Amino acid sequence: MLYRAYSTSMASTFEVLAEPNRRRILDLLLAEERGVGELAHDAALSQPSVSKHLRVLREAELVDVRIDAQRRIYSVHAEPLRAVEQWLEPYRRLWAARLDALEQHLETIDTTNAK
């Protein structure tokens, strides 16, 4: 049952991140927290569009929001991304092992050709 909740949560995170404008917004928020207007300007999107994307990101718990006077300031909330990172770790090790093997093979070819 725990795996199902973890899997559903991660699938939801992937679905949210599949949208390029949401990834762009997260990239901007990674650099620094921002308000909707700043995000709209920097992402070259309309303010209503950014607000809709932020709502989806907030519901997926990928962003945090705080009130500063009349503004809402958004920042990245990394916890759902950590779950994705943990899931990807075995694949990262597999890729690294294969890249290491390729590097060794290429070095062997270079050594053989140098002689």
Task: For the structure shown, list the relevant keywords.
115 residues, alpha+beta, three-stranded antiparallel β-sheet, elongated, disordered N terminus
Tell me about this structure:
There is one protein chain. This protein has 115 residues and is an alpha+beta fold. It has a 3-stranded antiparallel sheet with strand order 1-3-2. 10% of the residues are buried.
Strand content: 5-15%
As a whole number of angstroms, the C-alpha radius of gyration is 20 Å
Instruction: Describe the sheet with the most strands.
Output: 3 strands, antiparallel
Strands, count: 3
> What is the overall pLDDT average?
85
The helix/strand class is alpha+beta
> Which outline best applies?
elongated
Question: From N to C, what is the helix and strand string?
Answer: HHEHHEEH
State the strand order across the main sheet.
1-3-2
Number of helices: 5
The termini sit apart by 60 Å
Task: Produce the secondary structure layout.
Layout: H1 2-17, H2 20-31, E1 34-35, H3 36-43, H4 47-59, E2 63-68, E3 71-76, H5 79-114
Antiparallel strand pairs: 1-3, 2-3
